[in-house]
Amino acid sequence: MAWRIGVDSGGTFTDICLLDERSGRTSVWKVSSTPADPSRAVAEGVGEALNQIEARASDISYFGHGTTVATNALIVFAIFSRSVGKNGPTFTICRRTSRLSS
Question: What is the pLDDT of residues 8-24, one digit of tens each?
Answer without folding.
Answer: 998 899 999 999 999 99
